[in-house]
Amino acid sequence: MSISTVAHLNFHGQARAALELYHSVFGGQLLVTTYGDLGMPAGLPDAGKVVFGQVVADNGFRVMAYDVPGTPTTSEAPAAPAVPARATRRENGTTITSEPFFLSVRGESVEEVAALWAGLADGATIVEPYAPAQWAPAFGMLTDRFGVTWVLDVANSIEGSFR
Asked: 37-71 pLDDT, tens per residue?
């Protein structure tokens, strides 16, 4: 029996833009199906939103996303209660967060992961800059412009065999 786990991200009108960013960073195939593609009349507010989307790359990267139906897009949403600007931060070498999950990407070389970091960092909030770490040749953490927090690191010779 074989099982695979894929992160499925939920957005409010930003799924297509997020998937396009991840496709530009990780490459591979981008698939986007809208509610309208599945028969929702074009005049309805959700018709252009993503009902199923994914990026699948030959390097093993895979992520899925959709727009939650019946919710306003981020630009249409009423003002939300004040939320700390940085829900995740590093303090004294530890990660402090209120988020329920992070997406972790581990590569084999500093250069390979640095290229991914550069793509995700555009418009992101940097939690921890991409740099050498005690436990890895390089590590960094950021929250992208869509609010998804990513942990990027390079496998060291011991740890790489466990993950």
From this structure: 999 898 888 999 999 999 999 999 999 999 998 87
**Beta partners for 96?**
89
Confirm whether 83 is domain-assigned: no
Which of 36, 67, 98 represents a domain boundary (last residue)? Answer: 67
pTM, entire model = 0.82
Instruction: Tell me, yes or no, whether 110 and 57 share the same domain.
Output: no
Please report the beta strands in the chain, taking only residues with DSSP state E, as ranges in sequence order. 7-11, 29-34, 50-56, 62-67, 88-91, 94-97, 103-107, 125-133, 136-143, 149-154
- CB contact at 8 A, 127 and 102: no
